[in-house]
Amino acid sequence: MAAEGACVLHAFARRTGQASLIGPFPICGSPAPGDLFTAILARFMIFKSSTTAVPDAPKVPRHIAIIMDGNGRWATKRLLPRVAGHVKGVDAVRKIVESCVERGVEYLTLFAFSSENWRRPADEVSYLMSLFVSALEREVSKMHANNIRLKVVGDLSRFDPKLQDMIANAERRTAGNTRLTVSVCANYGGRWDIMQATSKMIAANPGITEFTEEMLAPHLAMAYAPEPDLFIRTGGEERISNFLLWQLAYSELYFTDTFWPDFSPASLDTAIASYQSRERRFGRTGEQVSNNAKKT
């Protein structure tokens, strides 16, 4: 297990530009203690946790996470079937991806389908799955041409095998792209994420009964990305809805009544302006933040 984990992490290090960190650890295939897998994972965590260290607070959010709410209500308001709102929502995704690239955002995470969305009417769920397939067919080549990496995060085992294969192929094709990482959360839930990470952490550390945040974090589904700086929810609701429960610990929250199909580049700028007006203290006092800013 440890040697296999080292091989995976060597590949991860090369892809993320962290290959220089490999040196202190045994080469792939060499003997290693049972807990080396977690130790190496922790070493490769290149982003700071907001609860164990004070992360950077960039002027332009490095990572934006969005709950794209209001597609169905947008359609109903216009006397259209709910699925028409989902189609229009895909157009909004395209515009916001382009806007994030233009503004220098490095990570964009979109909540497309939660683990609770299976409770919706069967015909709507079926249409959402077909829309996901068609979006992959249309958009992946464009994303690759624009140096955009695609990740799909969640429990994908419930999806049709064809869709699972399309997702895997899209991720492989765009894996080396660096301009923007777009993560689509599908059949994802924050509690699921914490539970699956806990299971992996325990399996990687047999016999250990006391764990730390640093031991768990590398196993989270989005360990490859920094914590979101800015969380946006469209559609008027003001809740997290089981989205990135671990990762949103110190994110700035922004809620808007605008339905997702109407969320434009100008709407994104308004959200970013709200983020820029906040003082990000991460547990410190305002005076400490001000003094630190003067030093830098």
- Could you tell me the radius of gyration in angstroms? 20 Å
Tell me the overall shape.
Answer: globular
- What is the averaged pLDDT score? 85
Helix content: 40-55%
Which range does the strand content fall in? 5-15%
Number of helices, counting only DSSP H or I runs of 4 residues or more:
10
**CATH level-two architecture of the largest domain:** 3-Layer(aba) Sandwich
| Largest beta-sheet details | 6 strands, parallel
Q: What is the oligomeric state here?
A: single chain
CATH homology superfamily name of the largest domain: Decaprenyl diphosphate synthase-like
Description:
The chain has a six-stranded parallel sheet, sandwiched between helices. The protein has two domains: 1-44, no CATH class; 48-295, Undecaprenyl pyrophosphate synthetase, CATH 3.40.1180. The chain has helices at 2-15, 36-43, 71-77, 82-103, 122-145, 161-174, 190-204, 213-216, 265-276, 286-295, and strands spanning 63-67, 107-114, 148-153, 180-188, 230-233, 252-255. The model is unreliable at 1-6 and 11-39 (pLDDT under 50). The chain is globular. α1 runs parallel beside α2 and α5 (122-145) packs parallel to α6. The chain is of the alpha/beta class. The chain contains ten helices and six strands. α6 (161-174) links the parallel β3 and β4.
